[in-house]
Amino acid sequence: MTMSKRRLIGLILAGILLPLFVYFLWRQWQEIDFREVVASAREIPLFNLMAAGGFAALSYLCLTGFDFMAVRYAGKPLPYPKVALASFVSLSIGHNIGVAALSSGAIRYRFYSRQGLSEGDVGRVILFCGMTVGVGLLTLAGLAAVLNPSLAGEILRLDSPALVIGLGLVCLALVAGYVAMAACVRRAVHIKRWRLEMPPLRLALGQVVLGPLNFACVAACLYWCVVALGDVGYLGVATAYVLGNLAALVSHVPGGLGVLEGVIMVLLPGASVVGGLLVFRAVYFFVPLTIGAPLFGLVELWGLGRREAAAAPA
Q1: Which member of 46, 90, 183, 248 lies 3.0 to 4.6 Å from 104 by CB, making a disulfide possible if both were Cys?
Q2: How far apart are the first and last CA of the chain?
Q3: In whole angstroms, how large is the CA radius of gyration of the chain?
């Protein structure tokens, strides 16, 4: 694709995305009852709020690692600061819009196309990040089912602990198989019409580390928001969060709205954890959105200024 055509596509995307993200930011603002969030936050100790914010930040740091490995998988390594900016902006917005692969993918294209990545390269970046999410969910879901089969069975509505443990072992076996394929398979894998190039072993191992670590940090953020409101352990919260997140991904609900509440109510029936969930959504979803959306606008304005300066006659 020529540079002029790529620039035209980028301008069209920016013209569509900027107003759209302003609308989503306004909609999120309208849907949040800040008086209720503040009232709920007052019931949570300051240390818990700080810990929740810290684990949310660690999660987004892990997510920048997804992109850092992904651009190497695409064969277009970039400096970490540029990757971190693209990752945070795209995911802070995509998490709130829903169908994150598409919403965050459009923003990734805006950032990475300026760094010389083609549509195919950006597609490989998105695919790799999606695989890392899958590896993380399968790993934690497998561990949760094996270590806490009673709670996992209650959430999944399965009465047999042996069946739950078996499903957990299958999840872990799939992850182990993926790593083995990365170590042994050098050619692209064809699944019907799909063509999948296996990453090098070092990147696959990075996925196995960063994927589960990201979800463990999100679960820790949720844990610190609800632990003051109900008698619950971290393993129980992590189990509920991972299985709820799987359901949210299937439903493509923005931020898993309503799905997470359902599994948490199974975990803590009768407990007043709604306030903790509101605080969690504010900490993990809304606060990054209020940073990422304006940051995206500033980057776009800065890029526009540079293009106008370059086009101006000497």
Answers
A1: 90
A2: 28
A3: 21
- From the list 307, 258, 285, the residue with the least C-alpha distance to 60 is 285
Which of 27, 66, 86 shows the shortest CA–CA distance to 257? Answer: 27
Q: pLDDT digits over 245-284, tens only? A: 776 665 444 444 555 666 666 666 555 667 778 888 889 9
Q: What is the domain range of residue 59?
A: 51-304
Answer yes or no: is 2 within a domain: no
Report which DSSP code applies to 44.
S
Structural domain count of the chain: 1
Helix, strand, coil shares, percent, the chain, to 5: 80, 0, 20
85 neighbors 111 (Cβ within 8 angstroms): yes
Question: Measured between alpha carbons, how far is 116 from 131 in angstroms, rounded to an integer?
Answer: 23
pLDDT tens per residue, range 194-232: 677 899 999 999 999 999 999 999 999 999 988 877 777
Tokens of 148: 């806490």
Beta bridge partners of 190: 195
Q: 178 is written with which tokens? A: 């993926």
Identify whether 257 is part of a domain. Answer: yes
Q: State the DSSP H helix or E strand holding residue 195, giving kind and residue range, or none if neither.
A: strand 194-196
- Rounded CA gap, 174 and 289, in Å? 34
User: What's the CA gap between 245 and 268, in Å, rounded?
Assistant: 17
| 246 assigned to some structural domain | yes
What tokens appear for 85 in the block?
A: 């900016």
Assigned domain for 134 exists: yes
Q: What percent of the chain has pLDDT over 90?
A: 38
